[in-house]
Amino acid sequence: MSDSDGPGGRARARDRRVPDADGGLSRRDFGRAAVAAGGAAALSACVERLRPAEPIPTGDGAAAHPTGQHEWNEFLDADDAGNDRLPRHHVFLYCSLPGDGPPDEDARTAVGDALDALDDAFAWGPEGLLHSTAYSPAYFDRYDASLPDSVDLPHPRTLAPFETPTFDEQDLLVHLASDRSDAILAAEEALTGERDSANETQFRAALTDAVTVDSRRTGFMEAGKPHEEGDDLSGVPQPNPIPEESPLFMGFIAGLRANQASESYVAIPDGPFAGGTTKVVSNWRQRLNDWYGEQDFDQRVMEMFSPAHSTQGLVEGVGEDLGDDSGIDEFLDDVVADAKEHGRVGHAQKAARANRDEEGNVKLLRRHVESTDDDEASLHFPALQRGISDFEAVREAMNGVDATEATPAVRQRVNNGILEYIFVRRRGYFLVPPRELRALPRPDGSA
Asked: What is the DSSP letter of 313?
């Protein structure tokens, strides 16, 4: 996960596995390896290897970008079914301010200048750079004033009796995403003060003029990549069973359009942070030895979706036949009956029960990406919602308590969706302000 306690730790983490520009990796494999390694050496190797590529498109400043930092969908590519494709490369920078009190104006100016320079340097989109800056409850605790009632942002907590996550209470989280490994590395190097420019744009300030990067984490989203990475990862059985066409380690597609909230739905509707959203980022370790070793394909379909998805043959391969809708809404009332009849229940059918409002609208917009941090098969799970309570309700529905009470065949984790195969290591809660308030905002939203 590349955590560190200061600049020395950060340097150690970012010296890992810098790819050889003259090595045998494909362009895409090379780019992902460079992002995972990070740092000036990885950027230099990346620029050398990718020099023949098209120039990275530059931006037109913050005014040309959408109001919400989370508004990515309009700019993303889509698959044949119309599902949004997340960028291939992701970097998460967890940062802390010095001291205990609120930041001063110099810090606010430095953060604002650094983020504004990103908008000048890179076009808003996967061919350039998508990014957001979010703030934790601990950050707002620095102020005497409280957040308004329109912002639902408690401190993170455990949401199941069997989980023991470490809580990310750093002040802010910067999420960078791009299809271009050279773009995301150049942006990171400029933000962290390693270079004073990116994509031929000068940075008047660095993010690290005001904050310290405590933890750097990386992710990716690309069909076939989990299988390619699986040969060298802890937790993956051999021979490698991950389907070659899957974008996820667990072998199925996700993020289908009909099963996702819209960006407008997850936006905070009123108050000083209207147009912003809240963000949960969890990190899960995946136990794939058992997922593939103990379950056949039909059982995996049952536990990922619902038993009916298996008995009715609704899922083929990695699930591309589902199109833009998993059809899970048809089976939300069947959890207890499925537990009694089949001795197992589905992850999606449990969670979706709490992930719909009274009109049937989906509440959460999920943007999870795979990771090989620490040489383990893991998952970074960003979820966007109006308020954190929406996320907590969905997560608690995943516990499937009613299924465990219905039959001894379904236990706290066994036969209970995918709970037996995922382990939450970290969880953080954040407010993603609207763009004009993204630089160290005050609780009352004043500029």
From this structure: T
166-167 and 422-432 beta bridge pairing: parallel
* Count of Cβ atoms closer than 10 Å to residue 350 Cβ: 28
* Pair 181, 32: CB distance under 8 Å: yes
- Look at residues 415, 291, 402 and name the one whose alpha carbon lies nearest to residue 344: 415
Closest CA to 274 of 44, 441, 74: 441
In this structure, of 16-30, 133-147, 294-308, the range with the lowest mean pLDDT score is 16-30
Q: Are strands 365-366 and 201-202 parallel, antiparallel or unpaired?
A: unpaired
Q: Which amino acid is at 248?
A: L
Check: pTM over 0.85? Answer yes or no.
yes
Assign 178 to helix, strand or coil: strand
Backbone angles phi, psi at 317, to 5 degrees: 55, -125
Q: Is 32 exposed, middle or buried (0-12, 13-18, 19+ CB in 10 A)?
A: buried
Q: pLDDT tens digit string along 113-171?
A: 999 999 999 999 999 999 999 999 999 999 999 999 999 999 999 999 999 999 999 99
CB 216 within 8 A of CB 93: yes
Residues 6+ apart with CB under 8 A from 369: 86, 90, 219, 220, 221, 379, 380, 382
Backbone angles phi, psi at 77, to 5 degrees: -75, 165
Q: Which residues share a beta bridge with 84?
A: 78
- Distance between CA 412 and CA 306 in Å, rounded? 17
Q: Which residues contact 285 (CB under 8 A, 6 or more apart)?
A: 235, 376, 377, 378, 422, 423, 425
Task: Count, in order, helices (H) and strands (E) of the chain.
Answer: 15, 14
Condensed to tens digits (0 to 9), the pLDDT of residues 311-324 reads 999 999 999 999 99
| Residue 362, C-beta contacts closer than 8 angstroms, at least 6 positions apart | 258, 259, 260, 261, 265, 355, 356
Beta bridge partners of 177: 90, 130
- CA pair distance 399, 395, nearest whole angstrom: 7
Angle at 46 between CA 42 and CA 52, to 5 degrees: 170
Q: pLDDT at residue 266 above 90?
A: yes
Q: At what angle do helices 40-49 and 27-37 cross, to 10 degrees?
A: 170
What is the sign of the dihedral through the CA atoms of 201, 205, 209 and 215?
A: negative
Helix or strand run (H / E) with residue 112: helix 105-121
d(CA 141, CA 101): 9
